[in-house]
Amino acid sequence: MSRKYVAITGVQGYVPDYVMTNKELETMVDTTDEWIRTRTGIETRHVQKGEGLGTSDMLVHAVNGLLEKTGTKPEEIDLVICATITGDMPFPDTANIVCDKVGIKNAFSFDINAACSGFLYALTTGAKFVESGSHKKVLVLGADKMSSIIDYTDRTTCVIFGDGGGAVMLEPTEEEVGIMDSIHHSDGSGRHYLHLKAGGSVQPISVDAIEKREQYVFQNGRPVFKAAVNGMSDVVKTILERNQLTNDDIAWLVPHQANMRIIETVSKMVEFPLDRVMININRYGNTTAGTLPLCLWDYESQLKKGDNIILTAFGGGFTWGAIWVKWAY
Ligand code: UT7
Predict the structure, then answer these.
(1) Band of residue 3 on the pLDDT scale cut at 50, 70, 90
(2) Does the pLDDT of residue 1 top 70, yes or no?
(3) 25, 101, 182, 228: least buried by Cβ within 10 Å?
(4) In the annotation, is 158 catalytic?
(5) Is 227 in the pocket of ligand 1 (CB under 6 A)?
């Protein structure tokens, strides 16, 4: 049986207007612009301001832009998968809400929660539906409003995260391009180092939980840092090796944007030159499920048909993985 290929046929990102600088954070917690730049590489991050706005509203901008640039009508979309850990509400899924807001009426839609690896998980899942022949135009979304779950009195987390995300379109193609291979892992024992405790079935929202500030992200940064560099380096090496690719065959490495030092270390460990690594953490910080579509969006004009790119991410769970994509346009 001949293999069916699944192309990414468009990408669109979105970040909210408000730019939070390191200087502003200096007025909120005991930190400095110098510490943030040297320890994380982050200079600014975007924050969604305004009553009643959430992750779906950022995604509406991205999806409308994507539909317009690909000349697609909302009713042509038959599946929407949204990666996020900051859905508008615990249920319904944010994918359902986005569909309603942009007029996508002929699709089924659902969310995937894999924290910073969410976009990778969603991309592979969406590609399987197209590959099977059951779905023809699939939207894969990744976005987070991290400002809604960040404690702006905790200097160890509040300087890192930002809001934003994006969307890609998947379609079948006769050409040998698109999602070529993917590797995914998860390890729930990592939950002790990175989690949000309150609001789930173990610890519903309560006055006690709020007093302990458990409605916010908790992170023990150092073990996560170590696991992230090892996890991402490992999957990048494996995906290259098992497809007989060398670094010279790869146009771009597209890593999750969690910390510039993590990106630099991974690039060293896989011996891949930093000038072919997509980097925008300086402007957006860590937007969790949003980092990879935002990278593709920022670098779209530099991508050429046939370029091999490797996406990789690591995040809460732990979850991690890598996807080899041959750019389709
Ligand atoms: O995307 C999901 C996965 N997440 C990640 O990949 C994040 C992985 N971790 C990291 O990126 C880093 O561990 C952090 C950026 C979170 C922290 O950087 P670090 O270099 O690992 O710092 P540290 O936690 O070892 O802390 C070093 C010092 C501490 O002070 P003492 O105990 O040595 O006096 C911290 O209290 O830096 C202090 N510190 C800060 N100082 C100024 C921590 N945050 C700040 C801050 N400003 N914002």
Answers:
(1) confident
(2) no
(3) 101
(4) no
(5) no
Look at the chain and report how many structural domains it folds into. Answer: 2
Domain boundary among 126, 151, 176: 176
CA distance 324 to 173: 16
Cα of 183 from ligand 1 centre, angstroms: 29
The model's pLDDT over 137-163, given as tens digits with 9 standing for 90+, comes to 999 999 999 999 999 999 999 999 999
Catalytic residue among 82, 99, 116, 295: 116
Same domain for 124 and 49? yes
221 Cα: distance to centroid of ligand 1 (angstroms): 6
Same domain, yes or no: 27 and 159: yes
Q: What average pLDDT score do residues 29-57 get? A: 98
Active site residue 185: no
Please confirm, yes or no, whether 295 is among the known catalytic residues: no
* Domain extent for 41: 5-176
Pair 150, 295 in one domain: no
- DSSP letter string over 107-148? -EEEEE--GGGHHHHHHHHHHHHHHTTS-SSEEEEEEEEGGG
Whole-model pTM: value is 0.97
The answer to whether residues 24 and 158 belong to one domain is yes
Q: Which SS3 state, helix, strand or coil, does residue 168 take? A: strand
